[in-house]
Amino acid sequence: MIITAIESIQWTEFPRLLVVRVHTDTGLIGLGETVDKVPGAKGALHGTIAPLVLGQDPLDIEGVWRFVMDNIMYHGFAGAETRALSALEVALWDIMGKHYGAPLYHLLGGKTRERVPTYNTCIGFGPVQDYAAWHQDAGVLAQSLLQDGIHAMKIWPFDQFSEGSFGQYITFDQIEAGLRPVRQIRDTVGKAMEIGIECHFRWNRVSIERIARALEPFDVMFLEDVLPAVYADEIKLIAQRTTIPVIGSELLMTRWQLREWMEKHVAPILMTDPVWNGGIAETRKIAAMAEAYGLPLVLHNVAGPICHAACMHLGAHIPNLYFVESVRAFYNTYFPILSESQVKAVDGHLAIPTGPGLGVTLRPSALARPDVIREVSGGEGLAQGRRAMGDHWAVEAIR
């Protein structure tokens, strides 16, 4: 079996998503996905990665991945190239599952749990406006989430105040305003709802520590991305000075960027994203490293139905899983438009997909929509069968 074409799919209505279909000469098609900064990832997919993988065996996932990574390493890998590689790699696992008739979690070594714990990131989309809801009355939103079987939620109530001072200073009144939705949740549903606070690295350490002190009485679940992920030592200081667990960061791609966080004991909880960090195998490697350090792992999941399915399979398999993020505003609106996925939280958990590979099928109607944008890279490729390190093959091919 060989890879015969790399296809990217976008929809104007869902501009954050880039779906990848990997075609083979046996007729099997694997599905992958990445999210955000789509133009860069799409350019990397067709311009850099496709010539490397066309003609390769899709079942040699590790070999294909290493060959691509060895080449993109030459010019800085942790950006568009790695997001594109992640989408491709997810699709290769989907092909393998379909080839052997096995679900992804079986290919990974089986399940450690029968259902996956989740928290809801309160984004709004279409008729499900959770973002607006927590700005209006977060207590009412918490009740709605509990009725939907969701027991943990994430909001970012302090971000709005960072722009005036460029994150250099937060006033007492702004602190009080940021605490308002947290108070509403606790006053309405008590501790029936876990609360995660996203910080989006908008503040300096002085300000984020002030925010943390104000939040401590509310027993929140975590503070996420308190500073840019490259400031490992500063983040460690914050983690040492608050009783709230600090978590990060999906912005660190591959095990090599997360290694420093583990070695320095920067944060008590790690987070990574399978469609940004290098893919499914890379996520499993990161999880194994984290387990050796006694660290739980959160899977960042704010994309479409393909990423969601990958996170569910990984969440079923990873022993040291803490939570898998999910967004009901997405899975209750556009997931059913694009795929046959049915997602429902029950008692704070999500079900593991069934069927071979990822267990996701795109609807024919989604592929026939008038707003679909397709690009296909095909042909023999420039590096069939190659596993050599470095990018000298490109020069040789041009000659």
What does this structure look like?
The protein has 399 residues and is of the alpha/beta class. It folds into two domains: 128 residues, Enolase-like, N-terminal domain (Enolase-like, domain 1, 2-Layer Sandwich); 245 residues, Enolase-like C-terminal domain (TIM Barrel). 42% of the residues lie in helices and 19% in strands. It is built from 15 helices and 15 strands. The protein has an eight-stranded parallel barrel with strand order 4-7-8-9-10-11-12-13, surrounded by four helices. A hairpin with a 2-residue loop joins strand 5 and strand 6. The longest helix has 21 residues.
- What is the H-and-E element order? EEEHHHHEEEHEHEHEHEHEHEHEHHEHEH
- Give the proportion of residues in helices: 40-55%
| Strand runs, count | 15
Q: Domains counted in the coordinates: how many?
A: 2
Sheet with the most strands: spatial strand order: 4-7-8-9-10-11-12-13
Low-pLDDT residue spans: none
Overall average pLDDT = 95
Structural class based on helices, strands and sheet pairing: alpha/beta
Distance N to C terminus: 28 Å
The Cα radius of gyration reads: 21 Å
CATH fold topology of the largest domain: TIM Barrel
Total helical elements? 15
What is the assigned CATH homologous superfamily of the largest domain? Enolase-like C-terminal domain
| Beta content | 15-25%
Q: What's the CATH architecture of the largest domain? A: Alpha-Beta Barrel
Overall 3D form:
globular
For the largest beta-sheet, the strand count, sense and barrel status come to: 8 strands, parallel, barrel
CATH class of the largest domain: Alpha Beta
